[in-house]
Each structure stands twice: as structure tokens, then as C-alpha cells.
Amino acid sequence: MPDARTAPWRRLPLTWLGLAPFLIFSLLFLILPTAHIVIGAFQDRSGAFTLQNLRDLNTGTIPSSYWVSIKISVASSALGCLIGFGMAAAVVFGAVPRAIKAPLLTFSGVASNFAGVPLAFAFLATFGPVGLVTLFLRNNFGIVLSRDLGFSILSFWGLTVTYLFFQIPLMILIITPALEGLKREWREAAEVLGASAVQYWRMVALPILFPSLLGTFALLFANAFGAVATAIALTGSALNIVPIQLFAQIRGDVLGNPNLGYAMAFGMIMVTAVANILYIWLRIRAERWLK
């Protein structure tokens, strides 16, 4: 007769069996590729250890590509936070009908994961040289986006606007629970003490939400900085950003240097890792107030 004290341990593998597909998927498509990139960043073409790949990150157009990528990530994150916060606040605090909340969150869940080639095609079909909006403004109002407004889908602001399609929904998904965590008693207490709506937001709500806002900004920055497929599919080689430079190094032709590409990818991993760690730390601090 089996010992009752050891039975739970015997059942443990079956209990964890449902996690096996996720663990295998993470190992094959996240952990092992990341380890391969990190190791390759410190190897030369013959496989010997070297730091030259990291030194080469400061040569040519690579530093400027990092700087452009950082600026695009900051711009799309800041605009995504601002617009997404306004939309989430309007839904949570009743400025728009409550019936919009469920469809908005559902759409945000889908749109926050809509990226890559489909997103690039959608924006090219809308704002490209022969896109729907481009032709509509040209034919009906005589406005040429590139000439009159200085806007091109293959430019800095073109890529930034494209990133907003998934940055704004991601902001809505993350900040909505934080807004719902603001207790009504805090606002009522502020009103009893004579505080106006502006004073309540400036002195009570925003200080409480600040860790959540800053953490979400860090997450959106990492999300934009690591968006590779969308940038390559949309701009090709028209914009000097890290994903384009990385693709040029690892695509396999004789002019490329795969190990330098690994070093560039390693730099991207470090930047996004710092942003994600900052987000996790700030999220923990924010949850202390909102519990």
C-alpha cells in the first residue's frame, strides 16, 4: 500500500505536465537562441573568444543607428503613454459610455500583438505613396503629405506612428487596472478637504500612479526597441536603425559579419532587459499603493 506522505510527490510530474509545451517552447525559441546570440557576440569567425565585436559597435553607422532606435522608442512610448492614458481614464471614470470598455479592452488585446509584416503592409496601404489616405488628401484637397506636411511612412515619424498602433493598446491594457485601483475614498477625502479636481490629480492620483506610468513607459520602450520585423518590412534600408543594421550583418552575404550582428543583438537584449527590469521593479512598488 503506497505511503500517503509520498503520494503528492509522485503526482507532481503529472501536475506539471501541462507546462511542458510552454517550457519546451521557451527553451527552443527564447533561451537557446538568446544563449547562442550572447555566445556569438564574444566569438570571431573561427569561434575563438574575442571582445572585438563589442568594440566594433562604436564604429561606422552603428552608434547612430542605436541613437535613432532609442529616439523612436522614446517618442512612440511617450505618445503611447499619453494617448493610452487619456483613453483608459475616459473609460474608467465614465467620460464615455461604459459599454465601450469591453470592446476597447478586447481590441487592445488584439492590437497590442499586431505587428510585423501585416502591420507594415497595413500602414503602407494607408499612408504609403499610393496609400488610401495619401491619395484621398491629394485628390480631394490637393495636399501632398511628403511635400506639404513633410510626412513619409519611411521616415522617423512614419515608423513612430506605425509603432503607436500597438503601443497605445498596450498602454490601455496595463494602465486600466491601475486606474481602477484608485479608491473612491481618496477622492472624496480630497474633496472634503477642499481640493479641486486638478489638485486631486496633481497631489494624490498622479503621485500614486507615477510608478505605474514610469514602469509602463519602460515596458513600451522595450517593446518598441525590440520591434524588428515591423521596422524591416516597413522601411527596408531607408532608415538607419539597429534592426536594419543587424539584418545587414547576419543575412549571410560576403559583406556581412554575423558575429558583429550577434553583438548588436546582444546590445539590444541588454537595453530591453534593463527596461523590463525597471518595469518589474516599478510595478512592484505601484502594487503596494494599489492593494
Automatic annotation (TrEMBL):
It is a multi-pass membrane protein. It is found in: Cell membrane. GO terms for cellular component: plasma membrane. PANTHER family: INNER MEMBRANE ABC TRANSPORTER PERMEASE PROTEIN YDCU-RELATED, INNER MEMBRANE ABC TRANSPORTER PERMEASE PROTEIN YDCU-RELATED-RELATED. PROSITE patterns: ABC_TM1. Residues 66-281 form the ABC transmembrane type-1 domain. It comes from Gemmobacter aquatilis. This is Putative spermidine/putrescine transport system permease protein. InterPro entries: MetI-like, MetI-like_sf.
